[in-house]
Amino acid sequence: MDLSGTSPRKSIVDRAKAIILAPKDEWPVIEREPDTQGDIFKRYVLPLAAIGPVASLIGGQIFGYGALGFSFKPTLLSGISTAIVSYALALIGIFVLALIADWLAPKFGGVSNKLAAFKLVAYGATASWLVGIFGLIPSLGFFGLLGLYSIYLIYTGAQPLMKVPQDKSVGYVAVTILCAIALAIVVTPITAAITGLWAASTSAVSRGDGELSGTLTIPGAGSVDMGKVQQMSKQMEDATSGKSPPVDTAKLSALLPASIGAYQRTATESTGMGQVGSSAQGTYTAGDKSFTLKVADMSAIGALAGLGAAMGIQNSREDADSYERTTTVNGQMQVEEWNKVSNRGKFGRTIANRFMVEAEGNAGSINELKAAVATIDADDLTELVD
After folding, report:
1. 109 and 33 in one domain?
2. Per-residue pLDDT at 334
3. Cα Rg, the chain, nearest whole Å
4. What is the Cα–Cα distance from 80 to 87, expressed in whole angstroms?
5. Is residue 244 part of a domain?
6. 271 with 180, same domain?
7. Domain membership flag for residue 242
8. φ, ψ at 354 (rounded to 5°)
9. How much is the pLDDT for 92?
């Protein structure tokens, strides 16, 4: 029996479901919870704020970005760096916006309460964070419009948390959102105009044991296995709590073979980024041909890699000179590209919904790049996880 007068702490999945589906019922529950800012930040903000940067990182590596006839694919290290910066700005933004929400409340008949303001902003941002998953496919970025639902979430939470009178809630939220927009303009030099319409149907259900199951169907884009979404949430919780730290770069480097067929390893490079992840790559050369073999542990921000497979992403493009294919093989995403004119291509795959192994460059054929990736044994990688 709970004698504290509060409900048992909800999991990140249960809280996200509740705030999205029944915000008016959930805000009073949140208001009564004794969690500190640190608790909310570690358990909720850290994993959810990573969704957008992580999805964009994966989408950029798989599909690249394109507009007006131009296309661009960032390098893995460049993509990771961008994800880290975006993630950091999102985390800083939550604290700044919470201060703004707290400062504005008394001016609209409410009360100043820093913890309540942090709860309002952190949980109110849920919708805007969740739609970041569409960054897995850059062309679906317009679905980000769904993040505007967070405005409604903050509106419904203004009265129970900040005690803003109902008749002043609209004004309070409007000014708070304007401040958020101004903040975004200041901290983010590039803004995007996002337009479009969205429709979806869902057969996802919560079982009696609190687990999520079923599918979310997005017309024209496919379906999401919600059970896998919950698994990824648990994986991310473990990563951000330190239960599953990134593999040491020295161990990743040790997996890079000295030679691959006729190719000899001529250089190595590794990068460690704390709890965010780690990576190692080798350059292999044979005559005038050269490619890189990369192994990356995306750890905390890579916990959502499996969502691409959960969506069953498939993509194919082919012309007389080249082809690109993205598939899901045995529950793991796989990308393959080859240009027979330049004899240049890329082959990569995810392993255990956490690691990325990729070979890219000039080679005799795509099979040589596939053989390079195959030198990194999946079991050897997973055994490195503590």
Report:
1. yes
2. 82
3. 23
4. 10
5. no
6. no
7. no
8. -145, -40
9. 77
Q: Which residues pair with 269 in a beta bridge?
A: 281
pLDDT of residue 188: 45
* Beta pairing partners, 250: none
Per the structure, the complete domain to which residue 304 belongs is given by 249-382
CATH of the domain at 306: 3.40.1000.70
Tokens of 243: 């239960």
The pLDDT score that the predictor gives to residue 3 is 37
Whether residue 171 is found in the same domain as residue 298: no
Domain check: are 288 and 143 in the same one?
A: no
Question: 90 near 128, Cβ under 8 Å?
Answer: no
What's the pLDDT score for residue 344? 92
User: Domain total for the chain?
Assistant: 2
pLDDT value of residue 274: 60
> Could you tell me if 329 and 180 lie in one domain?
no
pLDDT 10s digits, 143-181: 455 567 788 888 889 999 999 998 888 888 877 776 666
Ranges of residues in the chain with a pLDDT under 50 are 1-6, 66-71, 140-143, 185-213, 216-222, 224, 303-304
Does the pTM surpass 0.85? The reply is no
